[in-house]
Amino acid sequence: MRALGEWVLRHRKMVMLCWLLITVAGMAVTSTVNNRLTVDFSLPGQPGTETAAQIIKAYGNGGNTVPLVVTVTMPDGQKVTGSEQQIGDAFASVTQADVPLRVLDEANTGDAAFRTEDGATAYALVFYPFPDSFATVLPTEVVRKAVAAQVPEGATVGVTGMDALAVGDETGGPGVLAETLLGGLGALAVLLFVFASLLAFMPLLVAAVSILTTFLLLLPITYLTDVSFIVEFLIALVGLGVAIDYSLLLVTRWREERDHGKDNHEAVVTAMETAGHAVLFSGITVAIGLLALVVLPVPFLRSIGYGGALIPLASVLVTLTLTPAILGGIGPRVDWPKIRHENQSSPAWTRWAGLVVRRRWIAAGAAVLMLGLLTAAFTGIKIGAADSESLASNGAAYDALRTLEDGGVSTGVLTPIEVLAETDKADAVASTLGEVDGIVTAVVPTGDGADVDGRTVVVLIPDGETVNSQSVDVVRRVQDVADSTDGVIGVAGLGADQVDFLHAVYGNLPLMLGLICLLTYVLLVRAFRSLLLPLKAVLLNLVSLTAVFGAMVLFWQEGYGSNAVFGIAETGAVTFWIPIMVFAFLYGLSMDYEVFILSRVREEYDAGASTDQAVVRGIGRTGRLVTSAALILFLAFAALASGPGTDIKVLATGLGIGILLDATIIRSLLVPSLVSLFGSWNWKLPDRVARLLRIEPSVVHAERPAIVD
Question: Residues in domain SSD (predicted)?
Answer without folding.
Answer: 195-329
